[in-house]
């Protein structure tokens, strides 16, 4: 992108039909935290169309291997897996150099977090968090262990299915993106308030990892999952005069 | 191609502190110190009933003290303050309190030469929010407040007033002046939020 040029990209407001409900029955905080007043329409200026640039210069990036707490250290407990995918815009154009943050529970369903009161063990060989970048084709890849499910300890009780949280820094403030991705075929998916908070079945499918063929090698055999992400942003259609 | 954007999700309760800590000071970057007036930008996040919203995550995106964004789209990108990155992140404690150290932003310049009022973009993430909430913070003692294209979208004068951070000596610390911006997610004196 040349300095001082506006990319010919338009950011349309999210289509609510492809997104999660804001108010979810049984998810009590959604009723005390979502604004009661309608959200206000605004123009997008340089301020909203720009965004954190080269964030890896500001924060620490890791090698994308979360299967041990330190490089070459003892392996974390759990099913070892590779997770990969592509980050694109709505036209399918790759987003290179996007910073991705992930965080997840360990195999017992426990996070390293002051607010986690679940009586499950910490795995000393697992931190479950870190940052890495997409390559020139918008691809990312990391290695981790499968997270466990865990009970939600507040208000209405339910068990969260295994999932991994993603935070993505796209090229613009408009596509600072957060989500969580689930595993296919998990019984707890059926009752999860957040997974089912996305009413559109097609959109819900895009919250699942897709299993991929396992490459068998002599040294290491890992489960393989893929998940592509589509950030907002679309080439502007020339106006027909 | 016409792909549908991925569904957004809540940040949940367990965003690692390690990914937040050290991110709330925007005045240092690559060993340099940001130019301009350093300020504390802080306050409380509350929800319905004025109940503190603990464990929420806030992010800022703003131009430097001269109004330049560290982004190639900004025509003045090459002149951006080498000590200023422009993005920061903080979390709220159990009382809902948060604090950033940053600089008073300058008036950024659009490609057509018009200027925005000095402002900071804010996003709020928390349990219960399946989508981020976005708003813009303005500064009361800055000029040209009435001409801002985003501020002008807020019709109700009382609501518009709530988008201004106000000078608050109670937030002063180590010789750096404090500005208060309370975020009311829902309830009386609710903060105006924009369509994302």
How is this structure best summarized?
The complex is a heterodimer of chains A (241) and B (196). Chain A has 241 residues and is mostly beta strands. Chain A has helices at 29-33, 46-49, 201-205; strands spanning 9-10, 80-88, 99-104, 129-133, 139-145, 150-152, 158-160, 163-169, 176-182, 210-212, 223-226, 229-230, 234-235.
Structure report:
The complex is a heterodimer of chains A (241) and B (196). Chain A is built from three helices and 13 strands, in the order E-H-H-E-E-E-E-E-E-E-E-H-E-E-E-E. Chain A has helices at 29-33, 46-49, 201-205; strands at 9-10, 80-88, 99-104, 129-133, 139-145, 150-152, 158-160, 163-169, 176-182, 210-212, 223-226, 229-230, 234-235. In chain A, the strands form four sheets. In chain A, strands 2, 5, 10, 11 and 12 form a five-stranded mixed beta sheet that branches. A four-stranded antiparallel beta sheet of chain A has the order 4-3-8-9, with no helix packed on it. A two-stranded antiparallel ribbon of chain A has the order 1-13. In chain A, strand 6 and strand 7 (158-160) form a beta hairpin. The longest helix of chain A is centred in the N-terminal third of the chain and has 5 residues, at 29-33. In chain B, helix 1 (157-161) links the parallel strand 9 (133-139) and strand 10 (164-167). The longest helix of chain B is centred in the last third of the chain and has 5 residues, at 157-161. Chain B has one domain (17-184): Aromatic compound dioxygenase (Protocatechuate 3,4-Dioxygenase, subunit A, Sandwich). Chain B has one helix spanning 157-161; strands at 28-29, 32-33, 38-47, 51-52, 57-61, 87-91, 97-103, 119-125, 133-139, 164-167, 178-180, 183-184. At the A-B interface, helix 1, helix 2, strand 9 and strand 12 of A face strand 8 of B.
């Amino acid at each position: 992108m040349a300095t001082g040029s506006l990319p010919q990209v338009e950011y349309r407001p999210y289509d609510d039909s492809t997104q999660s409900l804001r108010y979810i029955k049984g998810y009590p905080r959604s009723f005390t935290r979502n604004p009661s007043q309608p959200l206000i329409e605004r123009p997008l200026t340089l301020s909203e169309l720009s965004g954190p640039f080269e964030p890896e210069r500001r924060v620490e990036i890791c090698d994308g291997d979360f299967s041990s707490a330190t490089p070459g250290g003892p392996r974390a407990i759990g099913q070892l897996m590779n997770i990969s995918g592509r980050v694109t815009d709505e036209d399918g154009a790759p987003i290179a150099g996007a910073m991705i943050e992930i965080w997840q529970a360990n195999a017992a369903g426990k996070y390293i977090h002051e607010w986690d009161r679940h009586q499950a063990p910490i795995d000393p060989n697992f931190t479950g968090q870190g940052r890495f970048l997409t390559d020139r084709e918008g691809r990312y890849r990391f290695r981790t262990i499968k997270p466990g499910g865990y009970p939600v300890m507040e208000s209405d009780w339910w068990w969260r299915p295994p999932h991994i949280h993603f935070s993505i820094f796209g090229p613009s403030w408009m596509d600072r993106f957060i989500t969580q991705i689930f595993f296919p075929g998990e019984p707890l998916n059926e009752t999860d308030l957040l997974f089912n908070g996305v009413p559109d079945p097609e959109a819900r499918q895009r919250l699942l990892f897709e299993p991929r063929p396992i490459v068998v090698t002599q040294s290491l055999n890992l489960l393989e999952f893929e998940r592509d992400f589509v950030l907002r942003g679309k080439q502007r259609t020339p106006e027909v005069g | 191609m016409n792909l549908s954007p991925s569904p957004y999700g809540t940040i949940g309760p367990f965003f690692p502190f390690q990914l937040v800590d050290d991110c709330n000071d925007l005045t240092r970057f690559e060993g340099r110190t940001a130019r301009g007036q350093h300020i504390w930008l802080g306050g409380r996040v509350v929800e319905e009933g004025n109940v503190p919203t603990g464990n929420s995550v806030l992010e800022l995106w703003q131009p430097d003290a001269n109004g330049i964004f560290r982004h190639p789209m900004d025509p003045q990108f090459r002149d951006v303050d080498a000590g200023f990155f422009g993005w920061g992140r903080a979390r709220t404690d159990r009382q809902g309190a948060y604090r950033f150290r940053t600089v008073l932003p300058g008036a950024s310049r659009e490609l057509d030469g018009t200027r925005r009022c000095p402002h900071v973009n804010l996003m709020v993430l928390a349990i219960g929010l399946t989508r981020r909430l976005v708003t813009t913070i303005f500064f009361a003692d800055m000029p040209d407040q009435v001409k801002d294209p985003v501020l002008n979208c807020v019709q109700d004068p009382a609501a518009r007033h709530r988008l201004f951070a106000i000078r608050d000596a109670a937030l002063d610390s180590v010789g750096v002046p404090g500005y208060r911006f309370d975020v009311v997610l829902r309830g009386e004196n609710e903060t105006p939020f924009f369509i994302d």
